[in-house]
Amino acid sequence: xxxxxxxxxxxxxxxxxxxxxxxxxxxxxxxxxxxxxxxxxxxxxxxxxxxxxxxxxxxxxxxxxxxxxxxxxxxxxxxxxxxxxxxxxxxxxxxxxxxxxxxxxxxxxxxxxxxxxxxxxxxxxxxxxxxxxxxxxxxxxxxxxxxxxxxxxxxxxxxxxxxxxxxxxxxxxxxxxxxxxxxxxxxxxxxxxxxxxxxxxxxxxxxxxxxxxxxxxxxxxxxxxxxxxxxxxxxxxxxxxxxxxxxxxxxxxxxxxxxxxxxxxxxxxxxxxxxxxxxxxxxxxxxxxxxxxxxxxxxxxxxxxxxxxxxxxxxxxxxxxxxxxxxxxxxxxxxxxxxxxxxxxxxxxxxxxxxxxxxxxxxxx
Length: 365
Fold this sequence. Notes:
- The chain is built from 15 helices and eight strands.
- The protein has helices at residues 2-7, 10-41, 56-84, 90-121, 128-138, 141-167, 171-177, 198-205, 207-227, 246-250, 254-268, 270-277, 309-319, 321-324, 332-335; strands at residues 184-195, 231-236, 239-245, 283-297, 303-307, 328-331, 344-350, 359-364.
- With 365 residues, the chain is an alpha+beta fold.
- It has two domains: 2-167, no CATH class; 179-364, Alpha-Beta Plaits, CATH 3.30.70.1230.
């Protein structure tokens, strides 16, 4: 199963990683509520007449149904709803999502409750008693209890998703598991990409319009990063820092293909940018490979950061793009481990500001 997931395209894999926590959270909360109900009543039979008498088959059905509902909520949230309202204010997001999920959960109740009743009575869904029980349930306090439980699951999963989005995919999980509680040394690939002529563009547009351009710019660069297994480390002004574990970045030349995909996607939107902002943004990038130390840091605000000469060197490499009049520079350390079909050109040994040793640089035609 794990091997199968690893072979999936990076975009599909990322969506699965974002959706699966919804199912897990819903399952765990359902388990907690079930144990709470049992401990309160001492059994699964002492329930109101409108509620369902729980046995093993209904318990299993309920757990499976709740997990599936959680996965459906995750699918809707990740693939559809969050994309449709991404530019809305927080208040509107809350209102739209509340209205949508209230309707969604009501439909879930209308579907799952009759199925569970038919299982309890060992009859079919068309039996009149099934629908009488549904009517009684909709006018009982059991409905309120169910709504509270489903709402708690929904809020918990949405909260987890929002926090994960803000921190970066996978970062929250690393915090929770304590993966980087103690510093660790890793070999990683970094790409520092920087918007061309950003100062002139900012002066031309003004702060507010430039911010809108940046938001669209980041949005358009994201698909290429996702499809090539990149991890956005940080945004620094108009600069995007992308990182890969070394195996992931070298696989299928993901780090190089990421640069190409970002360029292609941005150029495909050039006409829109000119119409909307009067200018089409472009970028240059530097790529390097090396060891970094990774760990949690911060007192008032925790972050997982990378430190080491590799980051400084990558930034310096990117800074030489203008000097060599190219959009992409690749260090010799990284180039020696890539398998490229395209023609690479060596620029020889180059000095990096602040470093005594020179480094060989390459570009790709």
